[in-house]
Amino acid sequence: MNTPHSTPVAWLDAAATAAALPYPALADAIEALLRDDSVTVPPRLIQPLPAGGSLFVMPATDTTVAITKLITFVADNPARGRPAIQGDIVVFDARDGRRRLLLDGPTVTARRTAAVSLLAARRLARHRDGPLLIVGAGVQGRSHLEAFAAGLGVRAVQIASRSRASADALVAHATALGLDARRVDDADAALADCPLVVSCTSAQAVALRARPRPDAFVAAVGAFTPRMVEWAPAVCRHLAATGTLVVDTRDADHEAGDLLQAGLDVGGLPTLADVVRNTPAWQRARRADGPVFFKSCGWAGWDLAAARCVLAAHGH
């Protein structure tokens, strides 16, 4: 019930949240956020749960908007017919503290993660039209497929998954979007055909052991804790020696499982903000040739960008 001085809160369900977050506009909002010096994002709290899952508490603010993301992550939930990520994002007015929006947490997580990869690909990929290889056919596989089709114009996609049924379902979705799509059963072999690669597995074990093409752009999404991994350590070391490594934020210094398990100095790598702002750190790190490996771990700033995008779409 609203108090006499309260304002009704806009509660957006999954469909309404998705409709307010088109991928190209969301990527633009993320780029704008990375240029905004007023943004403050403290370290996220990760609370272990008794059965092996985690509770994430992720606040962020700028001069006008404050958000807190509250989600749970339980890796084996899909096997029990439940989503791996559940929860909400509460959006407040940073000046007077009013609640303004309640957004569907899993939808924002899926879309903002794909939009971050889209922004990185816009900036770093040499062959933006693909073909695209997606390894992992879950929620992130679907969101990245949609984001790269809408934002880069990708028309051909190959999909690999441990589950043939999941891969076939994503192929059917891609076909319905008008893409040339097919399932591949050997992700390592498919790397030779695809200059765009997205790995978004459950990251419970190494999924890729072959080297990407020298002209490839890779968005590695699945591993977002030190213990998670998708890419073999030897491949990561090869990429560090021959290409360009970029992390999403400095939080990756202690979260980028693929790179940490390869023994790499993650703290010395440029961030996406360095790329967007063309900082000296980025100018020193960039190579004219070789593959680009973008490691995404997640950050509440991306959720703040999504809240700003929704507020703009609703005319606030």
Automatic annotation (TrEMBL):
EC number from the UniProt entry: 1.5.1.49
Species per Swiss-Prot/TrEMBL record: Tepidimonas aquatica
Coiled coil ranges: none
GO molecular function, one term: oxidoreductase activity
Alphabetized UniProt keyword annotations: Oxidoreductase
InterPro entries from the UniProt entry: NAD(P)-bd_dom_sf, ODC_Mu_crystall, ODC_N
Taxonomic path: Bacteria, Pseudomonadati, Pseudomonadota, Betaproteobacteria, Burkholderiales
Enzyme type, top EC level: oxidoreductase
Pfam families: OCD_Mu_crystall (PF02423)
Record's protein name: Delta(1)-pyrroline-2-carboxylate reductase 1
Gene Ontology CC annotations of this record: cytoplasm
Presence of the UniProt keyword Chaperone in the record: no
Entry keyword Lyase: no
